[in-house]
Amino acid sequence: MAASLQDVLAEALRRQATDIHISTGLHPTVRIDGDLVSVTSFGVLSVEDVRSMVGEVLTRKQIEEFEDSLEIDFSFTFTGATGESSRFRGNCFYERGKLGVALRTIPTFIRTISDLKLPQPIIEVTRKHRGLFMVTGPTGSGKSTTLASLVQEINLTRPCHIVTIEDPIEYMYSSEMAVIHQREVGSDTRSFSEALKRVLRQDPDVILIGEMRDMETISAAVTAAETGHLVFATLHTQSAAQTVDRIIDVFPPHQQQQIRQQLSTVLIGVCTQQLIPVPGGGRVVATDLMFATPAIR
């Protein structure tokens, strides 16, 4: 049968899918417990079907940006027939001249550190007032969910100012004990590095950086941690040790010793994680937690 994007989203949520792929010439495809499954109850999607689905979620401004850059990241809220809302982040792109869309489901309920069964020592990170803590792992390993649980723990327990810089905004926070401001790259600021240049003038206590993508962003994050702020960030690395090497390697050789010394001063630790399938369905998070002990520094 022909499908609207709303129909596909509703079916994906019913199946507890983590990802949705919309491609011309294929049935909608969803990822369940790490495996891709074709949703054959919907027909093969035509060029017009995919274009119509893109029009359901992108604003006019986003469509103009997409037409100019040929790809775009975005996020949106979907309200189903039951009235329950769900969040998605997405990317629109072209492949062989045809539209494609990849969507990731974002739970609207922020799970706690206990819910995620994260190592208990990680809760100590939320009680610190300065330093850099990174959550790393491959795409789809739950980094955003772990970061959200850390931010929410602070939100519920500390009167402070939290600023998040994300591309796009994923989890939506409500200010509790903390005051939270969420900034989205592209709509609220031009780039991660540009936002980080300004954030220190916004009286933050805690800063969340959605992803440290370049030397400017990494340098600004380290500086923010040095100047008395608690900074959370993510990287796509496979181990805690590799994370430190990756950061240092971003810098030219003549700056590597300096950034190494700065990291030894500000680094709180690294949580590298991966989602592991369990018998009977579902996945659990496996973590490799490294704290910056005197020996590691």
Number of domains: 2
The string of secondary-structure elements, in order, is: HEEEHHEEEEHEEHEHEHHEE
Task: Indicate the low-confidence ranges by residue numbers.
Answer: none
CATH class category label of the largest domain: Alpha Beta
Could you give a short account of the major beta sheet?
A: 7 strands, mixed
Q: Structural class, please?
A: alpha/beta
The fourth-level CATH homologous superfamily of the largest domain is: P-loop containing nucleotide triphosphate hydrolases
Strand content: 25-35%
Rg, Cα atoms, Å: 20 Å
What is the molecular shape?
A: globular
CATH architecture of the largest domain: 3-Layer(aba) Sandwich
Output the strand order for the largest sheet: 9-8-10-11-7-12-13
What does this structure look like?
By secondary structure, the chain is of the alpha/beta class. It is 31% helix and 30% strand. It is built from eight helices and 13 strands. It has helices at residues 5-14, 47-57, 60-69, 143-157, 192-199, 215-226, 240-250, 253-266; strands at residues 19-23, 29-32, 35-38, 72-79, 85-95, 98-106, 131-136, 161-166, 179-184, 206-209, 230-235, 267-277, 283-291. The strands form two sheets. It has a seven-stranded mixed sheet with strand order 9-8-10-11-7-12-13, with helices on both faces. A six-stranded antiparallel sheet has the order 3-2-1-6-5-4. The termini are far apart.
